[in-house]
Amino acid sequence: MMESVKPLDVVASGKGKLRRTFAKVINIKKLTGVVPEGNKVERVKKSQEKVKLDKDLVKNAANLSESFDKLEEEYEKRLAMEALLAKLFATISSIKSGYAQLQYAQSPYDPNGIQKADNLVVAELKTLSELKQSFLKNQLDPNPDRTLVLAEIQELRSVLKTYEITGKKLECQLKLKESEIIFLKEKFQESMSQNKLMEKRLNQSGQLCNPLDHNLHLSALNPTHFVTYLHHTVKSIRGFVKLMIEQMKLAAWDIDMAADSIHPEVFYYKQDHKCFAFEHYVCKIMFEAFHLPYFSNESSKKKSREDREMFFERFTELRSMKPKEYLASRPKSRLAKFCRGKYLQLIHPKMEHAFFGHMHLRNQVTAGAFPETSLCTAFLEMAKRVWLLHCLAFSFDPEASIFQVSRGCRFSEVYMKSVTEDAFFSRPEEEESSSETEPGVAFTVVPGFRIGKTSIQCEVYLSRSCQRRPIR
């Protein structure tokens, strides 16, 4: 029995080996995933859950990073598209502004302004083409924030320029309306003065020769009626000329050059006297063929009393009617033909384009309609009075004849009346040593008339620089 029992050190040594073997097994279990028991099992579970959680966090972080990248890319694309649209609309606004500048530079004509506006429009059209190509090739703007700011600035500048041009156009229209108001005020003052003069004549002689008197009969017609109505006609001509000169100034025309083109080498004592050259131009066209019935050579037979009565009836019929209403009711009448022909002859196409920037008025007049403009209204009033004066002239027996004097004629108070007295009191410095003391006729402003033995003086502009010729 004693031999079968092992010593204590041997037993202890066996226990140590067993403990080490058990520890190795546990470690192997941990490495191989074998779940141990007790507290050690709990610790292993927590460790595994922590590893799994770390893996999930890494995976979620990767997913979030990828999502943020996609959102940022979409945001950049959207911002680049907004920049493209902003630049597109800003470019369109610039084209609109450039086109407005182009229209404004055409009337009055400004070649430098037209060239500048044309270059602007062409440059912006090129920009549009570049934007189109960028969009088709999907070439995004590398700096969209800066592009958005610049596009907004460009948009504001274009809108501001458009408003500025609109303001200038309104300012021109305002000046034109102010000139019309001044013209109407002067016309009103002239009418008041004429009324006072008629009242004075009425008080002195007991009768008043008024061409608008509805009780006037053919048998009572005398040269005084013609003189009075001629005065009204000349007033309407001068009103139209004043309005035409205002239009020339608004169109930036050179008034001096225009007057010299009508009558070259004429010395004017005052700058304002150049308006008489335009009065001559208008009267020359409006009174052309005045000696022919209805301003045409349709009839060359001798006038009878029936013809005189017919002309006088036309005079009495038309004098109380407004010209536009008459032309609208009778578009194919002789008066309508007269107005269309004189307007197309008086207002040259270049002049009309300079005044209005287009040829619409001329096309409407050619078609038989006069538009509602101040220039056309003044023209129709003038044409009506010239036509009425023509009818009144052919109501006489014999009919009134028309005459004018040529350049260089010697002044005669019997047949002429000077539109200004400056020629009699002033003298050019370069002619102080000249022996000539009497001025000569530079041109006829308003023609004169003869009714039987009565002569109505023509109105002339005198200048000492004109060579004198005898009156024929």
UniProtKB/TrEMBL annotation:
Pfam families, per the entry: DUF641, GIL1_IRKI_C
Entry protein name: DUF641 domain-containing protein
PANTHER family named in the record: PROTEIN GRAVITROPIC IN THE LIGHT 1
Transmembrane segments: none
Coiled-coil blocks: none
Organism: Arabidopsis suecica (Swedish thale-cress)
GO biological process, one term: negative gravitropism
Domain of life: Eukaryota
InterPro entries assigned to the protein according to its UniProt record, in alphabetical order: DUF641_pln, GIL1-like, GIL1_IRKI_C
Domain GIL1/IRKI C-terminal: 402-461
Annotated DUF641 domain residues: 77-201
